[in-house]
Structure formats: C-alpha cells, structure tokens
Amino acid sequence: MAKADQLKALLKSHCEADDQRFFSVAMQVAAHEAKLGHGKLAEELRAMIDKAKLRRGTDQPIPIGRPRGDLANLLSVSYPKTRLGDIILDETLAQQMQRVIREQRHVADILTHGLSPRRKLLLVGSPGTGKTLSASVLAGELGFPLCQVRLDGLITKYMGETAAKLRQIFDATDQTRGVYFFDEFDSIGSQRGLANDVGEIRRVLNSFLLMIEQDHSHSLILAATNHPQILDYALFRRFDDVLHYTLPGVKQIAALLKTRMSHQTVKGVSWKRLAESVQGLSHAEVTRACEETLKTALIQKKDTITEADIIGMLLERKHAAARLRKEI
User: Fold this and answer.
1) Longest Cα separation, the chain
2) How far is CA 288 from CA 156, 170, 258, 316, 321, in A?
3) Torsions phi, psi of 272, nearest 5?
C-alpha cells in the first residue's frame, strides 16, 4: 500500500498538472510494492505508467503559449484553425498530407510496434503554391501550435551563435510538441560547396544536419524552399518525406474558386471557364483575387457576385503576376 506522503504527493502533482513529478512518485509507489513482495502489482503499475507517459508525450501537446527569453526572438507561435478542406492540393500531395495526419493521430500505436511516424518533411515548390498553408493545415488538423522559425532572429554574424540558437529550437521540439516550420530553408541549407558560401553557413548547415538526425521528439519539423536545386544533397535523406508543390491546374483552380466564392455568387457561374482563363496563377494569387472580389462587393454593398466580377479581379491579378515575373 502506498505511503500517506506518496498519496499526498500524487494528488498534489496531479492538481498542479506536474506530470514529471506525478510519474516520478508513481514509480516510487511501484518500487515500494515490489519491495513488499507484490511483484505482479508492481509490474502492472509500471506498465500503466509507461503507457501513460507514451500517450501523454504523443497525444496531448503542451501549449507553448508565448515564447519567453531567447525563444521569443526565434519562434513566432500561433494556433491555426485551418483544415484540409481549406487547401486545394493535387491528388498525390493530398494523399501525402492525409498520410502524415493519420500517422500522427495513431502515433502511440506506431511507436509501440517499434516503428516511426512521418514527422520530418521537406516542402518544395514555387512561391504561393501552398507550402506555408500546409504547415497551418497540419497544425490545425492535429491541434498543435505552429512555431514558425524567425530567420531574422536565428541567423547572426557572430561565429557559433546561430548554431547555438538552432540548438534552442531543437530543444523546444523535445519540450513542446508542435509543428516547427523553417521557411526559406535554402538560406541555411544551401550546398556546402557553393562559390559564395561562407564558413559560418557551412557550420550552421552541419549543425542542422546533426540536430535533425539526432532529433527523436514527437514534434513535426517542416522545412520549405523555393530553390531545391541549391540545397545540400545530405539534407534530403534526413527528411522522412519530400512534398512537391506545383501551380494548380484548371481542376484545382475551379475547386478553389468554388470553395471561396460559391456562397455569395449568382447561379450559373462556370468555375471551369473562370479557371481556364487564369491558368498559371498560384494558389496564393487565386486566393488574393477571391479576397479582393469579396472586399469590393462588401464596399459596394452588393449582395451577390457575378462571374464578370470574379473574372475582372482574376485577370487583374494575372496581369500583375506577369509584370512581376518579367521584372524578376
């Protein structure tokens, strides 16, 4: 039988949500029962504790809240409500995203069988194709905080400081389960042999390679890049999966327009015809055109939106995108 002080400690740690203390005292109780010759009870207690630890570490993320200290300059944290239905993906990419979500939702079962769920993902594709939105979707679907790494706070001119800050981020992945998102990852993941490379960046890349390989947390680590061709080759094998993002086709654009606009449009709108007129726009550009159309209708106090309203804004966005690409 547990001692009175152990029972009080268990209740106190539970009331204070101090899981580490709770499990520690529970293990003391199991050890005490073993000393009394209650071997079967002790084994049952240890098994229950191990199972609770596993589920607590994987199924119930600890809210990170607002990062404090040095982490405040390294991570920007939010709690997205975005869901899979809010993003339009091609069939292959949608299946990859669904697979990641399924594995994370059954992570305890996967780990108990000695397997590992996908959680280190490299997102590759042109700007505006949905990489950042995908990070929000994963966080929203899983109920995790989205922790975006602030490159302006991470990369410094002082030797060794960037690697030290990188270590703080990886320590956070172990302490708080979440989606950790490295956007514009090529800024630290470029090939070590590039002519304009500098020693400090090589050291940062080497540190990242080591840290991501040694990371055994339950967090998702996402890295996004618009320039996969300049990434160091050693990076690719450190990730569990590579997700390739492309410009949406007619089918995806039509689905996106319908999702965003159908609740306020008149009957008879041809989503396919609208999509065909602006093929080549990115997911982000089509989304912006939808938002501009909705804002214009709101300002003009229009109850309904016509196909002409939508096409006008889409073509405006298409011409603006074309001019920008010429300048680049």
Assistant:
1) 82
2) 34, 34, 14, 11, 12
3) -65, -45
Compute the mean pLDDT over every residue in the chain, rounded to the nearest whole number. 82
Chain segment 7-43, per-residue pLDDT in tens: 777 777 666 556 667 777 777 777 777 777 777 777 7
CATH for 69-245? 3.40.50.300
- Separation CA 108–CA 56 (nearest Å): 10
In the chain, where are the structural domains located?
4-59, 69-245, 250-327
272/269 Cα distance (integer angstroms): 9
Q: What tokens does 8 get?
A: 């009080």
Could you give phi then psi for residue 34, rounded to 5 degrees? -65, -40
- What is the SS3 string spanning 80-105? CCCCHHHCCCCHHHHHHHHHHHHHHH
pLDDT of residue 1: 52
Asked if residue 185 lies in contact with residue 151, where contact means CB atoms within 8 angstroms, the answer is: no
Instruction: Note the pLDDT tens digit of each residue in 54-73.
Output: 655 544 444 555 666 677 77
Task: Identify the band that residue 197 occupies on the pLDDT scale cut at 50, 70 and 90.
Answer: very low
pLDDT > 60? residue 149: yes
Domain 250-327 has CATH 2.40.10.240: no
